[in-house]
Every structure is written in C-alpha cells, then in structure tokens.
Write a structure and sequence with these properties.
The protein is α/β, with parallel strands linked by helices and 421 residues long. The protein is 66% helix and 7% strand. The strands form 2 sheets. The protein has a 5-stranded mixed sheet. The chain has a 3-stranded antiparallel sheet with strand order 5-3-7.
C-alpha cells in the first residue's frame, strides 16, 4: 500500500467526509429536479401539486433536524462510555463505524435535500415535470431514512458497550495482522544484522504511523542501494532517531535523497492500527487493565480480553510460519520482523501484573499461556513460556489465600500432565 492509498483510506474513514458527500448528493438531487422539464416535457404520467410536496419536505426537514441532533448526542454518549469503560484509544473505531457514518450521512443529506427542495418550490423553480421528479426523489429519500433509522436504532443498543468495543478492537487488530502477513517485512526482506551506511534521521517527535516501502523501493532502485528500515510503525521517534540506513551508497548522502527518504515515514502524535498489530494488542490490554482497576472491578472483561489475545496470537503464529517465506516484493528494502517477545509482552504482561491477586483471572491467563507455549513456531512457544513464568511468579506473590494457591497449582499440574502425556 502506497502512502497516497493509506492517506485516502484514512480520509475515507472520517465521519465528516461521508456526511458531506451525502449532503452534496441531496442538494444535487433537489437541483436536478428543476432541470427535468427540459428532458421530460409532457412525458410524466402523474401531476403532483406543490402543496403535497411542500408538506412532505417540511416533515422531513423538521424531523431530520431533530433526529440528527439526537444522534449526535447519542454518539457523544457512546464516546464517553467507551472512554470511561474501555479505553480512549478505542473511540476512533466508533467514529469510523460504517453504520454510524451512513446513518448520520442519510439524516444530514435528507435534511439538506428537503431544505433545497422547499426553497426551490417557493421560488417556483419546478414545473409539472420537476414536481413529479422531486416527488420521486422524496419517496426514495423517505425509504433511505426508514432503513437508516432501523439500522441506527439497532446500532444504538450496542454502541459504546464494552463487549462491542472489545470486539471492534479484536477485529481491527486481526485486520492489521492480516495486512502484515500479506506483506511480511512490509514487502521487503528481513533485516537480521544492520550494516554500516548513510543514516537518515528523524526531524520531529512522535509515533511512526506508516512506512511507504513502495517509495523506498523506488529510491533504492534508482540509487542502486539497499535501504534498511530501523523503525517499525508504532515506534516512538525523536529528533535524531535513525529512521533508515543506506548501505552500499557511493558517495555522501545528498540533502535531496535524505528528504525523500524521510518523507516516506509518516510520523504523528498518536499510534494507528493500520500497519501496527502491536497497538491493537496494547489497547486490548488497556481494556483489561481498566476492568481490573478497583473502580471498575470487572474481572469478566479481563478474562474475555485474555481469550481474544490468545486467539489473535494463535492466528499470528500459525499464519506467520508461511508468511515469512513469501518472496520479497521490494528486494532492496530490509525491515525487521515483529518480535514474539514484544507481542506477548504487549498482550499479557500488564494483565498478569494487575490481576495477580485474582484467582479467576490468573487461572485463565495461566491456561492461555500454557496453550500458547505448546503451539505455533518455536519462537512463539518460547515467548509464551517466558510470560507464563512471569505470571506464575506474580501469582505466587499476589494470591494470599492457600486455597487459591492450591487451585492454581492444580491447574498448572493438570496442564503439565496433559502436555507430557
């Protein structure tokens, strides 16, 4: 995916973009009806009075203004609920929801359509043909409003709830993993041992959101050099951080090339999910930590998150075995692989810390890590076993009740027997 494609995908998910397009379509539809007399002169089978259309458009205008106001309030409440009950990092997923965007777009677009239609009626811009076409457009708009209302009501029963937010996080994390698996090492070759060469440094502070390896490949082919990417999406960089290194470069690095390479790295103030599977694991872990806090005290949500993290890492381990063998799309670009230790630490480390005193959470965490330590590639099993030992150590210190200690030990022994049996 090129940088332009990524930027367009980010813009497309903005709420105001779709709302503006629907509003523009509503205005265009009302205006086109005024030109219909030129194309359908005397050919319309029905004669609709201005009063009939005026009544319908007035009803749509007044009701859609109220519905839009209510919808914005409901959406704001959903954002607040997701922020307080889950994590603030999950709120962009609610904004990007397809049902939310289509519903609000339909409400605003139909409101503007009715306003423009009313204005045109008052100034007598429509003849018999125009009124007939406007009436047909109005019926279509009413159908769209009814469908949007039904979908919106159904969505309001889930929007902002913890379960819905966690499901969205799992979905977006899985999509990020699939994107990385489709282009392992971002389309380049694996970077194992960095070489010496001309370095390109960051000139700002923030998180790497996107790396345009396609543009890096074009630069490397033009210069006949190898480009080593030293920071992955999600990395925090500052002034002077090494972004990339050009090996086998003949002569010094020019300012023009340095600037072009730096522009292939998009750096922002926050992390994004698109090229950063680790961020999804981190945000899921944040939801579990919020649930384990004394103010919320919801261990069930933490247990749910552990199950989802386990499912995601199982998928990653199974899919990555074949993905890392995929031929490089950009052979002159070298990118580091995601470390299993980092993935497992993002997913489970803090949950094991905050849940060390709760036997139900620790039992699920231990069982999940035991399962992951017995499946997948060797590196994945090693990382899972390391997190398992950390969790057991914390549980030994956190569980004060002897019965809880016995239950935990029984679960460990049963899993050990099953693994060796």
């Amino acid at each position: 995916m090129s940088r332009l494609t990524w930027i367009l995908s980010r813009i497309r998910r903005r709420l105001w973009i779709r709302v503006s397009l629907y509003a523009l379509l509503g205005v265009v539809a009302a205006l086109l009806a005024s030109l219909s007399g030129r194309f359908f002169s005397g050919q319309m089978p029905l004669d609709v009075t201005s009063e009939a259309i005026d009544s319908l458009l007035t009803i749509i205008a007044s009701s859609m203004l109220a519905v839009t106001t209510f919808s914005v309030g409901a959406l704001t409440s959903a954002y607040a609920g997701a922020t307080s009950n889950a994590t603030p990092r999950a709120t962009p997923l609610l904004t990007e929801d397809e049902v939310v965007q289509r519903s609000l777009s339909t409400f605003v677009g139909s409101f503007l359509f009715s306003i423009v239609g009313l204005i045109a009626l008052k100034v007598s811009a429509y003849g018999p043909e125009g009124r007939a076409v406007l009436f047909i457009f109005t019926l279509i708009v009413i159908v769209l409003i009814v469908v949007a209302l039904l979908r919106w009501i159904n969505q309001l029963t889930k929007l902002g709830r913890v379960v819905d937010t966690v499901s969205r996080l799992e979905t977006v994390t899985c999509e990020a993993m699939k994107t990385r698996i489709a282009l392992p090492f971002l389309g380049g070759q694996v970077l194992t041992s960095p070489e010496q060469g001309a370095q390109v440094h960051s000139d700002c502070v923030g998180y790497v959101q996107f790396v345009d390896t396609a543009a890096l490949s074009e630069i490397s082919e033009k210069l006949q050099v190898n480009v080593e990417v030293h920071v992955l999406p999600g990395s925090f960089v500052y002034h002077g951080s090494v972004l990339a290194c050009l090996s086998t470069l003949d002569g010094p690095l020019t300012d023009e090339v340095d600037c072009k390479i730096r522009e292939t790295f998009t750096i922002g103030t926050v992390r994004t999910f698109d090229q950063d599977p680790r961020f999804g694991l981190v945000v899921l872990s944040e939801v579990a930590l919020r649930a384990l806090s004394p103010a919320v005290n919801d261990p069930g949500t933490a247990i749910d998150v552990i199950g989802r993290q386990t499912r995601l890492l199982s998928y990653w381990g199974d899919a990555w075995k074949n993905a890392e063998k995929t031929p490089a799309k950009y052979p002159r670009v070298r990118v580091s692989a995601l470390a299993y230790d980092d993935l497992f630490e993002d997913a489970f480390n803090l949950i094991g810390r905050d849940g060390a005193g709760q036997i139900d959470v620790m039992l699920r965490l231990i069982k999940a890590l035991q399962a992951l330590s017995q499946t997948g590639p060797a590196a994945s099993r090693v990382a899972a076993h390391r997190q398992l030992q950390i969790a057991l150590s914390r549980a030994a210190d956190g569980l004060r009740n002897d019965d809880d200690q016995r239950r935990l030990q029984a679960a460990v022994d049963a899993a050990t027997v099953k693994a060796t049996g």
